[in-house]
Amino acid sequence: MSGNTIGKLFCVTSFGESHGAGIGCVIDGCPSGLALSEADIQPELDRRRPGTSKYVTQRKEADQVEILSGVFDGKTTGTPIALLIRNTDQRSYDYEKIKQVFRPNHADYAYIQKYGIRDHRGGGRSSARETAARVAAGAIAKKWLREKFGTEIRGCVEQIGDIHCAPRDWSAVSQNPFFCADPAQVPALEELIDRLRSEGDSIGAKLYVEATHVPPGLGEPVFDRLDADIAFALMSINAVKGVEIGDGMAVAQMRGTEHRDELTPDGFLSNHSGGITGGISTGQTVYARYAIKPTSSITTPGKSIDEAGQATDMRTTGRHDPCVGLRATPVAEAMLALVLIDHALRHRAQNADVIPGTPRIV
Amino acid sequence: MSGNTIGKLFCVTSFGESHGAGIGCVIDGCPSGLALSEADIQPELDRRRPGTSKYVTQRKEADQVEILSGVFDGKTTGTPIALLIRNTDQRSYDYEKIKQVFRPNHADYAYIQKYGIRDHRGGGRSSARETAARVAAGAIAKKWLREKFGTEIRGCVEQIGDIHCAPRDWSAVSQNPFFCADPAQVPALEELIDRLRSEGDSIGAKLYVEATHVPPGLGEPVFDRLDADIAFALMSINAVKGVEIGDGMAVAQMRGTEHRDELTPDGFLSNHSGGITGGISTGQTVYARYAIKPTSSITTPGKSIDEAGQATDMRTTGRHDPCVGLRATPVAEAMLALVLIDHALRHRAQNADVIPGTPRIV
Amino acid sequence: MSGNTIGKLFCVTSFGESHGAGIGCVIDGCPSGLALSEADIQPELDRRRPGTSKYVTQRKEADQVEILSGVFDGKTTGTPIALLIRNTDQRSYDYEKIKQVFRPNHADYAYIQKYGIRDHRGGGRSSARETAARVAAGAIAKKWLREKFGTEIRGCVEQIGDIHCAPRDWSAVSQNPFFCADPAQVPALEELIDRLRSEGDSIGAKLYVEATHVPPGLGEPVFDRLDADIAFALMSINAVKGVEIGDGMAVAQMRGTEHRDELTPDGFLSNHSGGITGGISTGQTVYARYAIKPTSSITTPGKSIDEAGQATDMRTTGRHDPCVGLRATPVAEAMLALVLIDHALRHRAQNADVIPGTPRIV
Amino acid sequence: MSGNTIGKLFCVTSFGESHGAGIGCVIDGCPSGLALSEADIQPELDRRRPGTSKYVTQRKEADQVEILSGVFDGKTTGTPIALLIRNTDQRSYDYEKIKQVFRPNHADYAYIQKYGIRDHRGGGRSSARETAARVAAGAIAKKWLREKFGTEIRGCVEQIGDIHCAPRDWSAVSQNPFFCADPAQVPALEELIDRLRSEGDSIGAKLYVEATHVPPGLGEPVFDRLDADIAFALMSINAVKGVEIGDGMAVAQMRGTEHRDELTPDGFLSNHSGGITGGISTGQTVYARYAIKPTSSITTPGKSIDEAGQATDMRTTGRHDPCVGLRATPVAEAMLALVLIDHALRHRAQNADVIPGTPRIV
Questions:
Q1: I need a labelling partner for A192 at 20 to 30 A (CA). Which of A128, A308, B297, C280 fits?
Q2: Tens digits of per-residue pLDDT, D304-327?
Q3: pLDDT of the residue at D194
Q4: Residue C73 distance to chain D (closest CA, Å)
Q5: How far is D349 from chain A (nearest CA, A)?
Q6: Which residues are recorded as binding FMN (chains A, B, C, D) (predicted)?
Q7: Residues B51, B57, B62, B65: is their CA dihedral positive or negative?
Q8: Confidence label for B95 from pLDDT (cuts 50, 70 and 90)
Q9: Average pLDDT of the residues in A226-246
Q10: Which of D105, D253, D274 sits opposite C161 (nearest CB)?
C-alpha cells in the first residue's frame, strides 16, 4: 500500500529502481485465455526505449522483458503475470557526486523527508525508467482491449515549447523520434532539442492520447469515474503537471450551448466531453491531454543545498532527455489502457446482467 | 467497489440521491480522540448550500447533518462516523417530462447504458447534491489537519467566462456569493450570471484551491502520488474537465531553468511545482487549479433523443445553477482535505519511525 | 480502513453502536435491476431480533430497517444502498457502573489500549447488536444469489454444551428459539438455558451453515480463497473462536484414502472438502462449522481491574443472552451470503469469457 | 485482484507456478530503514525447503532467493521489495499422464471450471511450492516485528493421525524433520510416515503457532479483526480445513465462568482467548491451531474422470509429501507474521496519537 499498485481488478504492482537489478511488475487479474508471449510486449517497450535517437537519453538498455509466470502453452492462465526487465547499462559512478546534494525539482529532497534514506543512483525509484514496467503491463491491457472491443489507443505530441503540432496525421507518429503527428514540424523540433542540449536547458511538452471503440458504460460515478481515474493515471506519470479531458481547461470560458454534445438518432453531433459524461463512457472516442514539465536534470547550474543544509551550486550531469515529454507517449497509452481494462472488468462484474440500453448511438 | 469510496485509510463512502430520502456518508478510519459535533460540520455545509443567493439554484435545502455514530462524549471513538442529511425540498414532478429523454451532456445516456435503469429525478446519483456528503466528510478532515499540523485549506474562483479574478484577497471570498477573492470583479460576475439566466445559457469556470502548512513527506511515489490523488479527487467533482498542479498546463512552454524551484538554506526560492516533487509534498504550499464545464441543464433547447431512439428537442427546466462552478469551492476544499488526511495517515503507517530529514526547509 | 468494510466488489460498510442513534450499513456494488424493498430485508432481521423468547436478551428492539438510497421504482439502481436501523430500547444507565471497569473477556480492555477512549454503553461498537447491519446486507445478497443461481443458505445449531443436535430436520429450525434442527433436543436446551440463567453462567455453542447450488469456479486461489474468505467472515462474528470447512479439524486424523472425494461421471462420491478445492468452489454444497464462546457478560462475579489499575470484583448485569450462539445463525448465513456474492461478482469480472468447463458434475 | 495479494498496508503479491520459471513476490509497504539482505531470508526458506529428509518430497530445490529491488546500501528504502526464487528441479514429464485427468481432492477440476485452462504441471499455481514466496515475505515481517516489539513467532506440530505431541519443548523443534516439540514422539512419527509411504497413503495433521510479545491494540474490530485475519491467513494455506484461536472449537462446551480470562493488576490469570478480545490484541501471547488435510496425491488408485467426462482410475505418482502438514510450520509462522505486521502498521496509522491506556497489564 505504498502506492505501487494501480487498478482494482486488473492490478499492476510495479517494482524496481533505475540502477538496481532491474524493474518489472506483477499483473494480477488478467483474464485467462489471452494468447500472450514476450513478442506481444517487446514492441511497446522498444517504442519507449532510451538511446534510440540522439534526441533522448543515451543510456543503452535492451529492455528485454521476461515473462516469469501466468502464461502456459502460450495463453494466460488467470494467475499473476510477473514481468522482469533486467537493468544492464547502469553507470552509477555518474551519480557519486550528487549523493549528498538535492537536485532542484527532483524528488531527492522529498524522498529524504519521507523515508530518511534514498537510492540516489539515477533517481532510484523516482526515475522515469520505472515507466518501462507500466509500458509492459499496458501492452497486455492493449491487446486484451483490442481483441475484446476493437479498442485502439494512440497518442502524439501536440506542443513542445512554442512549437505546435497541429494537423494530426497518425501515420507520421512512428516516423520520427518525437511522436509528432505533424511531419512539417519535425525539423523545428530537431532544431529545438539540439539547441536546448547545447544551452544546457530543457523544455516542457503537451501531449494527446485517445482511445477509440471504447464501449459505453465504463466508469463508476461519484469517485472512481472514468475521467477521474484517467486523471489519476496520467498525473502519476513522472513530471506531468496538468491533465485535461475533452475540452479541458478551456471549458472555463465556454457556454453551455457551446460545450454540450447534442444527441441524434445517428449519434452525437460533437465530442466536447471527451467521450465521458457523469464519469461514464458514452461510446465516443475517449481523449485527454497532459502537460509534462521540462526535465529537471539540466547542466545549467542552479542553487541547491546538501544534506548538511549547506548552500551549493548544482549541475546535473549524467545522460538525460532534454524533453522528458518525448518518450511519454507510450507510457500515457499504457496508462490509458490500464484504466480502461480495469473499468471494463469492473463493469462486467457489476453490470454483466444489464441488457445494453437502447438506443445505442456513437 | 462501484467507486463510491475515496481514501485508503481515511475512507469515505458516499450514498444518496438528489430526490431520495437523503444523502450521507460513512467515514471509516478517523482517528479517535478528535472533538467533534454537528457544529463542526454544519458551517461547511452552509457554505455549499443551495438557495443562498439568487445566483445559484433556488432549491431550498436546510442541509442539516446528523451524526449517527462514531462520536461519544463529544469525541471520535475511532469507529465509523455515519453522517446523514435528509432531503426536504424535492420537487420530483419537475422531472416527469424528462423521464424518457436524455439531456445533452448529462449522465442520463451513460447511466442507462451502464445500469439499464436510472433515477431520473434531479439527476439521481449524478446530481451535484451528492457533493454535500463530501463537504461534510471534508469538514472532519479539515479539522483534524488543522489541529494536527496547522494545515489551512481554502479556495476561490479565478475565472468565469472572460472575467478573470486576479488579485487574491482571501478576506473577500466569504463576502460574495461567487467565492471571488477579487472584490472589484463581483459586479461583473453578478451581471454575467443575470444575463446568462435570462438568455437560458450557462458558463464554465476555473478555480483555485490550496493547502498551507502541509507537512513534507506526504504522497506515495509511482502511482498513489499526492498530485495524482489530487487530480483524481478534483476530477471526481461533477463537471470538472481539467486539473493543474503548480504551473499546470503552462509547463508545456517552460524551460527547465525557468520552472525549477531552487533550494537555499532558507527555503525554496519559488513554488512552480505546487509543493509536490516526485509525488511527495515538500512542505511548501500545495496548490491546484481545476476547470468546471458550463451547467448542462439550460433552458435553450437542444437536440436529443428519447429512450425509444427518436429525435426530440430538449429544454431542461427545474432549478439549476447557471454556473456550477460557483458552489464548487467548498467541495474542492473538502476533496483536497480528504486527500491530505489520507496521505497523512498513510505516511505515519509506513514512515512513523523515520527521523524527519535534516535539513528541513520550506 | 479501520476494518468496517467487507467485500471487494459487493462492499458492505457497517456503522453504529449499541446505544447510539442506530446501526446500519452502506452496500456499494449491488448489481442494478434487483427488485428490492424493506420487506425483503425485515424477515431476516426478525429472525435475529432480540427479545423474541425468554431464552435470549430481553432488550426490545423493533429493528425496523429503512432503505435510504440505491433503490428506485422498487429496483436497485447500481448505486449505494444505505440501510438504517434506529436504536429505540437503549438503557444506558444499566452501564454506568461499568464505566470505569473492564469486563473480563470483553473488548473493554483492548479498546482502551487501542483507542484511548471507549463507548462503554452496552459494548458500544463491540456489541453483537452490530450484526443486525450484517443481517440486513446479507438479506440482499441472499436474494440476489437465489434469483441468479438458486443458491440457498441455511444454518442450525449443532451443539450447546454437552447437548448434540444430531439429526438434521431443516423444517424444525424455525419452530424453536434455538435454531435447532433436532426437535428431540429442544426440551433439553430449554432446561439448560434456564439453569444457566439461574446459576449466573453462560455456555458456548457449535453451529453449522451451508449453501446449496453454489456455482463452480467461485474463489480466488492463493490468498482470497473461498474457504479463507469464509473463515474470515465467520471468525469476524463476535465471540467465534473456531471455523471448520468440510471435515474441519477432524482431518488431522484422516487418511488420504478416506478424505478424498472421488469423481465419477455422475458426480462426486462424497463431500469431505466442503465443496471447495484449491480455494475454489466445485459446485457441491459449501458447508462450514464455527464455535462461539460462552457469553462474557455473566452475573457470577469475576476478578477484574478498573481504569486506575485497581483490583475489583466484576458482576455484569444488564440484559444478556446466556448463549450468544443462539442468535448467531442468521448472522452466519448473512456472512456466507456476503462472501458468495462477492466471489460471484469477482468471478464474472475475470472469467466472464470462460466457457464453463466440461464435464460439469456435482 | 485475483486474490494474490495479502495485507492492506504491508502488501505481499505472490506470483509463480510449480514448474514455471520461478516463484516470488513483491512486498509493497515495508518501512524504510530495516537492515536487509538475502541472508535474512534464506534461513527461513531452508526450513521449508523440500528434499531435506526422506519424510518429505524428494524434489531438490535450492530455493535461492534474489532481492530484485527495494534495498539499497543494505537497508530497505520504503519502495517495493521484489523477491525471486528460480525453479530448478522441475520434472514436468512426470505430469504428462495426468494432463487430461482430474486428481481427486486436487484443485484440478475447480481450476478448469473457473479458468477453462490449467497448468497441470505439478499443480501449477495450486502447488504448495507457492508457499515459498510467503515464507520469504514472512521472513522480512518477522525481522521487523522482532526489532520493533521483540515479537517472536514459532510453531510446531501437535498431532499427526493418532499421534499427539503433547509436551512442548521448543528447543526440540529444529532437531527433527517434523517440527515436533515432543522428542519422545519422533520415532513414532518416523514409523508412521514410512508406513504410509509404503501403503501409498497419506495423513492429516494439526499444528500450533504462536506469537509472543505482541503489543496490545492490534486488530480492527468488526470485520478486519486480528482473529479474523489470522483465520483468513491460515485457511489460505494449501490443504488447511480448520482454524482455532485460543480455546477454539472446544468453547462449544465451555461455561462462561470457565472460559473468561480474569484480570488482576498483575496481569491476566489465563489466556483462553488466545490473546485477542473484541478482535484486538490484549498483549498476551497470540496463538492458534490449524488442521491440514492428508496429501491428495497418493499412489492408491481412486475413481476420477477425465476432461472428456469419462470415468478413469487415478493413481498420482510424482514426488510428494505423505503429510503436507510436515512442512507447514514455517508457512504458518510467515502468515502470522504477515498479519501482525499489517495490523501493526494499520494501528499506528490510525492510533499513533493515542497515549497507550493505563493500566497496561499482560
A1: A128
A2: 998 888 999 887 776 677 898 999
A3: 93
A4: 32
A5: 12
A6: 125-127, 238-239, 278, 293-297, 319
A7: negative
A8: low
A9: 98
A10: D253
Candidates A125, A201, A280; nearest CB to B257: A201
Query: Per the CB < 8 Å rule, is B9 touching D350?
Result: yes
A5-351 CATH fold: Chorismate synthase, AroC fold (3.60.150)
- Is C33's CB within 8 Å of A349's CB? no
Binding residue ranges of A: 48, 54, 125-127, 238-239, 278, 293-297, 319
pLDDT in tens, B292-337: 999 988 888 899 998 888 999 887 776 677 898 999 999 999 999 9
Contact of B354 with chain D, judged by CB distance below 8 Å, is answered with yes
Domain boundaries, chain A: 5-351
Residue keyed to cell 494449501: D238
Please check if D18 is assigned to a binding site: no
| Residue D355: partners with Cβ closer than 8 Å, 6 or more residues away | C116
Task: Tell me which chain B residues have a C-beta less than 8 angstroms from the C-beta of C9.
Answer: 1
Task: Tell the residue number behind the cell numbers 499513533, with chain if given.
Answer: D352
pLDDT per position as a tens digit, D86-105: 998 776 666 677 778 888 88
Residue of D350, D353, D354 to mutate, interface with B, max B Cβ within 10 Å: D350
Check whether B297 is labelled as a binding-site residue: yes
B177 forms beta bridges with: none
The CA-atom distances, in angstroms, between B214 and each of B235, B276, B297, B331, B362 are 21, 10, 38, 19, 10
Secondary structure tally for chain D: helices H, strands E: 7, 18
Closest Cα in chain A, distance from residue B313 (Å): 10
pLDDT per residue as tens digits for the range B154-196 = 999 999 999 999 989 999 999 999 999 999 999 999 999 999 9
Ranges in chain C, pLDDT < 50: none
Find the mean pLDDT for residues D240-261.
Answer: 97
D240-259 burial: b if 16+ Cβ within 10 Å, else e? bbbbbbbbbbbbbbbbbbbb
Q: Are D302 and D202 in contact (CB under 8 A)?
A: no
CA pair distance D44, D344, nearest whole angstrom: 22
Q: Are strands D205-212 and D240-245 parallel, antiparallel or unpaired?
A: unpaired
Q: Does C177 touch chain D (CB under 8 A)?
A: no
Mean pLDDT of A48-58: 74
Residue (of A196, B182, D331, A79) closest to C278 by Cα position = A79
With CB atoms and an 8 Å threshold, state whether D117 touches A1.
no
Residue A269 · residue A262 · CB < 8 Å = yes
B265 and A311 in contact (C-beta within 8 Å)?
A: yes
D354 contacts on B by Cβ (under 8 Å): 32-33
Partners of B109 in the β-ladder:
none
The set of chains that have 3 or more CB pairs under 8 A with B is A, C, D
ipTM of the complex: 0.96
Which 3-state string (H, E, C) describes chain B? Answer: CCCCEECCCCEEEEEECCCCCEEEEEEECCCCCCECCHHHHHHHHHHHCCCCCCCCCCCCCCCCEEECCCEECCEECCCCEEEEEECCCCCHHHHHHHCCECCCCCCHHHHHHHHCCCCCHHHHHHCHHHHHHHHHHHHHHHHHHHHHHCCEEEEEEEEECCEECCCCCHHHHHHCCCCECCHHHHHHHHHHHHHHHHHCCCECEEEEEEEECCCCCCCCCCCCCHHHHHHHHHHCCCCEEEEEECCHHHHHHCEHHHHCCCEECCEECCCCCCCEECCEECCCCEEEEEEECCCCCCCCCEEEEECCCCEEEECCCCCCCCCHHHHCHHHHHHHHHHHHHHHHHHHHHHHCCCCCCCCCCC
Residues of chain D neighbouring B351 (CB-CB closer than 8 A) = 31-32, 78
Q: Does B96 touch chain C (CB under 8 A)?
A: no
State pTM to two decimals. Answer: 0.97
